[in-house]
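ok trying this again, last paste got cut off
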Amino acid sequence: MKENRVFEAKETITNTFLKTVSAYANFGDGIIQFGITDDGDIIGIENAEDACLDIENRINDSISPVPDYQLSVDDKNNVITLQVKEGNFKPYYYKSKAYKRNDTATIEVDRIELNHLILEGENRSYDELTSNEKELNFTILEKKMKEQLRISSVNQDILRTIGVLDVDGKYNNAGALLADENKFYGIDCARFGETIDIILDREIFEHRSILKQYDEVVALYRKYYQYDEIKGAIRKTIETIPEKAFRETIANALVHRAWDVKSHIRVAMYHDRIEVFSPGGLPKGITEEEYLGGQVSVLRNPVIGSVFFRLHIIESFGTGIQRINAAYTDSKVKPVHEFFENAIKVTLPVITCSDDFTDDEKTIYESMNRAGKTSSEIASEAGFGKNKTLKLLEVLEGKGYITKIGNGRGTRYLINA
């Protein structure tokens, strides 16, 4: 078995394995096996029972707090297996440092990741932490609450009810983010021309209420992706990208982003799409499948999420992705969601481009189905060479018409439903 994020092989017992114990306890279950060479040869460990006691003592003496783990010995080859469970009392330190797995390597976490581990261990979120700000104004929040909730004014009782002010009269980070002015990064919007070297417009919305930022970026969207069409006495607003999908994408970014990361939400606007990059990656404890399926069980910023829900900016927790996709029900092109370790990217294509195929692209598209085909099958049916087919598939994937699944020879392409 090859080493990976959740498996490490050790030929002998040295203290280097303790870093990996820290990593597994901090970020997810994992296995370390002793008595296996780097080449995968099984050599076993002499006096395996005594070696297990040595491993146990090293963990108990060196990892703080002590994680949940199990040791076992294969009597046939004397390979020792150490199973480490992800813990609830993070961070787990080895020599005052916390570690994580990076593919097959174990590395020290950075300051931001350490802060996340501390919060997770305390079962707290960043937006719940006490802010250093003493005096905050909430005229923008008050206006929103008057419009949506019929509240006459926002007083301290209201602020406590929505969770931004504690019993001692101290604001938390959610309160600072919702206040009229703050010191946080915001939303960086750029409209590009034919290439990314051509910037036609640039707006940065920051240091003010995230409610105002939300309205400002929606207004910028309307400037470039909506227009009025007049037929006789009837005026109709045409959306080249569904406003509903854009609103949900921005709301999701504000609610789920990591606010302790000193980076903007980035909105890149092109003639055929909008790309939204949200700092922080997926919230801890949520898989890509759960996120896309609307099964969001963990909110990275629950206080902000609750306020957005009260103000009807988001309709209910976990439905944002479904609502984004629903806005494209009648379109051939679909939104694309991509997940990275430290960011989430959502691409919203222009729906008026749904029939904008070249002749060759149309031939490729019509050669496909929703069940999926290999590039060789598509090339054969379309009558094109392999290289040409792969280039056209790449273009169609970039436009959001199709999805690529799998790797290597198992790669298949299917049209988006």
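PB: full thing came through this time. The chain has three domains: 7-121, 187-353, 359-415.
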